[in-house]
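Q: Trace token order:
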Amino acid sequence: MWIPTEHEKYGVVLASFRGTVQHGLPLEIGDTVQILEKCEGWYRGFILKNPNVKGIFPCSYIHLKNAVVKNKGQFETVIPVEDSVITEMTSTLREWGTMWKQLYVKNEGDLFHRLWHVMNEILDLRRQVLVGHLTHDRMKDVKQHITARLDWGNEQLCLDLVPRREFSMVDPDEISVTELYRLMEHRHRKKETATPASTHHLSVQVKSLMSANLGEELEVFFHIYDGRENRPLSERFFVRLNKNGLPKWPEKTERQSTLFVDLGSSDLRKDVYIVVHIIRIGRMGAGEKKNLCSVQYRRPFGCAVVSIADLLTADSKDDHLLKVYACNTEIEWYQIHENIIKKANSRYNLSGSNTGLAVALQLLHGDIDQLRREYMGLFTRGVCITKKLGFSDIIMPGEMRNDLYMTLEKGEFEKGGKSVARNVEITVYVLDADGQILKGYVAAGSGEPGADEYHSLVLYHNNSPRWAEQIKLPIPVDMFRGSHVRFEFRHCSTKDKGEKKLFGYSFVPLMQEDGRTLPDGTHELIIHKCEENTSLADCLRYLKLPYSKANLPTNSLTLKGNKESFWITSFLCSTKLTQNGDMLDLLKWRAHPERINDSLSKLKEIDGSEIVKFLQDTLDTLFGILDESSQRYSLKVFDSLVHIINLLQDSKFQHFKPVMDTYIESHFAGALSYRDLIKVLKWYVDRIVEAEHQDHIQQVLKASDYIFKYIIQSRRLFSLATGGQNEEEFRACILELFMSIRFFLSQESKGISPVTQTQAVFLRTFPAIYSELLKFFTVRDVAGFVRETLASLPTVIQADSPLEAVKLQCISKTVESQLYINPESRCILLPVVLRVLHTCLQEQRDLVMCARIFTSMLSLIKKEDNGTVEPAVSEEVELIVESLLEVLLRTILEISNRPQPAGPAMRLQFQDVTGEFVACLLALLRHMSDKHYQKLLQAFSSKDDLRDFLLHVFTVFRILIRPEMFPKDWTVMRLVTNNVIITTVLYLSDALRKNFLNDNFDYKVWDSYFYLSVIFINQPCLQLESFSPSKRKKILEKYGDMRVMMGCEIFSMWQNLGEHKLNFIPAMIGPFLEVTLVPQPDLRNVMIPIFHDMMDWEQRRSGNFKQVEAKLIDKLDSLMSEGKGDETYRELFNSIIPLFGPYPSLLKKIERETWRESGISLIATVTRLMERLLDYRDCMKLGEVDGKKIGCTVSLLNFYKTELNKEEMYIRYIHKLYDLHLKAQNYTEASYTLLLYDELLEWSDRPLREFLNYPMQSEWQRKEYLHLTIIQNFDRGKCWENGIILCRELADQYESYYDYRNLSKMRMMEASLYDKIMDQQRLEPEFFRVGFYGKKFPFFLRNKEFVCRGHDYERLEAFQQRMLNEFPHAIAMQHVNQPDQTIYQADAQYLQIYAVTPIPESQDVLQRDGVPDNIKSFYKFNHIWKFRYDRPFHKGTKDKENEFKSLWVERTTLTLVQSLPGISRWFEVEKRELVEVSPLENAIEVIENKNLQLRTLITQCQNRQMQNINPLTMCLNGVIDAAVNGGLARYQEAFFVKDYIMNHPEDGDKIGRLRELMFEQAHILEYGLAVHEKYVPQDMRPLHKKLVDQFHLMKSSLGIQEFPAYVRASPVPFTNGSPRTYRNSVPSIISPDAGRGVARRSYPAVNRYSSSSLSSQASNEVSNITGQSESSDEVFNMQPSPSTSSLSSNHSASPNVTSSAPSSARGSPQMAEKHKHSRENACLSPRERPVSAIFSNPLEPAQRAPSHQIGDTTLPRSDPNLSAPDKVSSVKNARSQSPGPMSRSPQKTAMPPFTPSPTECQSTSLVSNSPVLSGSYSSGISSLSRCSVSEASGTELPAGDHLPHPLPPPAPLPNSISSGSDEPIRRENKTPPPYSVYERNNPRRPVPLPHSLSIPPQTDPPALPPKPHQIRTGSMKLDGTTDPRVPRPRPLPRKVSQL
């Protein structure tokens, strides 16, 4: 039976449990579980991280832990009873764990590894804490270390700052808000600005000395040297090196590394150096040969110097290599370091080119204990401490030090009978009073243990040597008396024996007889002669002699005349000994009572460090004197006491205050002193008002806190001794003293008088007295003293008086004192404090202090544990609210709106003040209960006051919500703030409802309320979705979802508004919409109905809700672009629709229906906009610019234009798209995009406002700027033809304004563009069809197909890879078939990609002879609407012998919504058409393409356009070899056999056409071989011969003996050297363009509807365009169209299809292996496919433009005087006369063709309706082509009206408008692309329409026959009744209002 557990509530999993039993709960090791029930060795419960899944698990797997249960029962929570630091570590490590893995994913390797180390470190420390074997101090250190690491990790991972007190996390509900703020501020400040350490330490580790000339041991001495004062700052650090320059004892690290401790901040400057002296131990001369003697000397080697300031900048871990210098002469050795510092180069040089000392130097900061914690490794491995000379900046009590430093300065010696100077060595000994040598007390420096003696340097042959060697004598204090130091002088001989001979000695005693030690400074010692060591054995003999020349007796002339002297400098650093006689006199006052007065007077002159050394003794002395002779010395003793007390205020000695406190508590014994102290103090206070000099009195008052301590302690001692006698007398004395104090405080004085300053001094120390007074007086008494004392201050204080600030400081300290903490005294002091605070806040002064006082006051107000508030506390809160709430609100408003100060320190203070006041406000509001709110609101006398108060509160709350209010990681503080705000708002909303509704409605208050609510909900810190699960859970447990609470409050308040709702429509739509975008379902469900309500009220008011709609859409855009909203939101928005019918009674039925429809329509629009905006937002989050972003922006831009007609939005997105293109370097697309805006503007002077990045300017100026920018981008995109059009338009504008300077520039620019067309290379882009299938694609791509223009050099594989990179989750489809519905509906992404071939729009230019390829290339790949893709397949049974019989081609033609290139690199496919091409038609196309390729190559070869002849050779070889080996023969077998002709009688024409093409090919080959022979190089002659032989074989296989008549007809068979055939002789497949009725607007306009005057031949075309067939439906539906010539219809074959298979080179996704061979037989490369034959359509005579044939009377000519019907009939006649076999187009029967002669065809190209002018205006390249009906006639034709044939300019022909040109336009339902430039309008002078590049008509008709006019549908209109030349008003493009 399962029993609920009582104590077993919480445990940790010890081993993983799979949970395989029924109801088993799988557990992982380390999981924490909460246990609910128990049964026979099993528990039932859940894992804490997933409380929803409950199950059973064995008891043995769980380690139970103590825990506390809250809310027992169903919703109980279990909190483990463990150290809060461990709890925090556990939760933090779990949170870090998930984030740590993400760091790896994001490739943030550095942080990943650092965090890993820290996590391991924390785990290790956690184990130590859990084991619990640590000492209290060590535990403290470990916890400190843990919290430091946790804070570091949180900061690195951008997690929240954790408020802590003594390493434990603080619950914000359990402490005051002000206290929480202080904790956060303290932690933030600690994190932000680490307080600069006042003490610094230098770590030095010696590595080695590198030098070529070593071989002797070395001694290295380091010390820190002050270059400014030329003195050492530290003692020396001494390291011995062996003969190799390495440390002598490498295993003892403390002997080679040191810490120079206690450097002050002032020591870290440029002129403080580390000086290194290096001494060698060895022979006298460095280069001497080894002599027999083993005597070694200390000799100079070198010196190195480095500035400490360099270490501050250098990397601390780097080793430093110090250059070692040697002095030029040994005399200079003592000052070599100074010379190096001064750079006196003449006095030193490098001791060797490669001599250097390698040392590790590092500056460390902080006190030594801190270093021991932080650099444990440094101290554990051993490091010696090198002390500073003298005490550090701060002297600590208890510090024991007794070091005497001696520096051997110099000596003066006589020659001593020698011819040369001596080599002097000094030996130093320390001897005690008995003459025994003190062992181990002579130290050359730290690092080496002390020795018994010290040997100085030896300077060679120098009688005046200067050593400057410092030694340390650490002699114990008790040995000082009687000890002395002896210096022995020896001459070191350099002879063979090398003996050291004694010749004299000096000595100096360490302590004088009166107890003073040897004074600091330089001493000149007497050198006593002595040559025997034995004479020094008895020290008593020489100690009686004088030792210093300064204290020689006057009669000692012999010694005075002695020229030999020795100088030393001594310096004592001792905490126990003194050199000061005055100090000793004072301490021994009883011995000399007569000197007491002097001694007390001289106390002030004694150095402070001497006084603090003997602090207790000095105080005992003072109070001893006072007790014994109080009458005589009381004033002097008092002054001395004051001096000592004030001495301890100094930062250097402040650590001695505890020493004095201890003295007062434990050692002070002056039981009677209180009377004298009170008397003298009162005497001083009474003199204040009259005294002229206040300085001394101020010193007395400064010390008053300690004086009171002495008074009270003395009185206590007296009471204890006497049993409390004279109590009243003491009280009376104190009261009198306070009367005097109050009197002097009440003195008023103008300005800053001495009395005022004295008052300020007293107020500063006054709060320190409270605690002493409380020892004798009750709390109420002391509070009374304080109240009356503060009240006695002058009421009116000058503004500039320092007294006001000091008064506040005094109050601040009062509030922080023990006195104020007591509730009894608080009720007395609170009114005083509130009064002062109110005044200061009212006047906005001393805000920092006010904030501090307020914070302290509020931190004392606490609720009881059970949540109740004591009545006294409640009254206190009431008092504060009444007095300060309003003024506090006003203050926060003022300081928030004030500009922030400039300086960083001031700004920091400014932020602190704001933060502290905010914390105070929050604390106060949190303490307020219902009762307080009621009283507060009732206290307002008028509605206006209440209104102002509410407005203040709401405004302040808005300020508190600002992100900059608190640092970004202060989430804890923000949540507390929000909790307080929502609680307060709930109280105040009642007041709002009661007082400001109905008749008293106040818009401003309500608006402020709603605005606050919206901002509140939208705060980042409340968006729980963005937090980690654990953080979200914590917040929800503590505060719930505050957004939902506020949302419900908004809804409730909105419902209360009634008809006043109209005031908030549409103003509140935006804010409320922002709230609904928060992804919180409950909040949305609450808020969405408000929109319905708004629509309803707006509908009632104005009959529609256009306002609501407009505002909604604008706001949606701005919010979505900020990244708000999600998919579910769109669905939720749709859910408004069902809400539209709940008010049948309110509206009539029809209104309801109307309202419902428009409502649904609005929602649909908003939803569609949302789809696009969401896609846009998601795309913009991605990193690089890619097609997805551009496509998405295009989709949105078009939506704003077409569906919403939002002009400003439209223009904004134009510019966003433009920026994206520029970033992606899509310059052509960028130009087209900017054209969209350009076309909205006109050439007018209308002023435009400042918009986006455009300044305020006229419309003309902006349009000019746009033109220039677009031209520049067209130039960068190599789209120069388009740039030329804009250049012309600008030039015309400049010309109309006579701005010839700019006109000239524009013409030059235009010329440069023409040059670029001819001179620069343009890459031909590839085009790819991409299908996006599946629901996972963004809305604008989903289940759509696009054609994309590839990048330069991008082929199919690269494009496919790019698309897969953009859509990493997409699956590439491996076939080209259309997918089925399962793919469309799949929850996945499928990409289908294959290459497609463009079908050029402008065939005219491409078919024209003599047009350079540079120009043609533009027309091949620009303004392309159609693309095609061919897929071969076999129909019926496949003949294995000859597969051509059944090889069909499925041709897919794709039509786009806009032409490429355009505003995007890809456009959607609008229409796809499928045509099947029969095997015969396929064969015709293949041969036509090959013929065209051959012609092109032959022409290029003849014109010397080819670098070499190889391409022609390969092509000839391919054709001839294939033909011989079965290429053409296969076609003969397939289509020329009787069976095929019998079975396919309808293909007769086509078979004839195929035969002709074969003959034509043979003819071309023959000519090609002739050309080849002419140019072929010698080494390829054999191949040529082989080709000729094979060609004859081929001819015979085709059965050609000689060519047919129509092939032979031309005596000169090739125009321009290329063979020509005449395509009009045989009908062709009709071009898809033939049925095209309306032009798409493309830029520049390529007109597809002009009549082409090209004759049927296009054989000389050197283009790479290939033929194309059209579906039968297309042909059937053809209507007569004057703008399309069936004679000039071009058909380009798909580059990805061959006779048998699509080209893999073009990138068709797949191709059957069995088709590949035939591709080699007859396939052409994609760029080399010829134009197919051109067919006429006998059913459509009106469509045909006549060919003009010179010299052939049987054919019609283009006579300008002929009417259209005449021309048509003449064509018919020509047809009927022309011989030749009948042939058929693929689907229809055709009339017999006519065959003109070659010469006629040649002339056709010259005289016919000029090809230069037909079809298109050739992008503005030829000026002859600039002829336009629109300008010639001044009339424009709208879509649907066509000219049946060309209109001659001279005279209008009314009858020419009658030939059935009213056909329905096939593309008129298309939205014209918005980026055309053809409807430009110049208000000043007519500007030619750029689309036609027309020029004004001439008065005389041109010499050539009239040119066919290019008709642009939509730009021109003619009807039967109107003169075509009469100008008509043109519809202006839509204008942009003021943009």
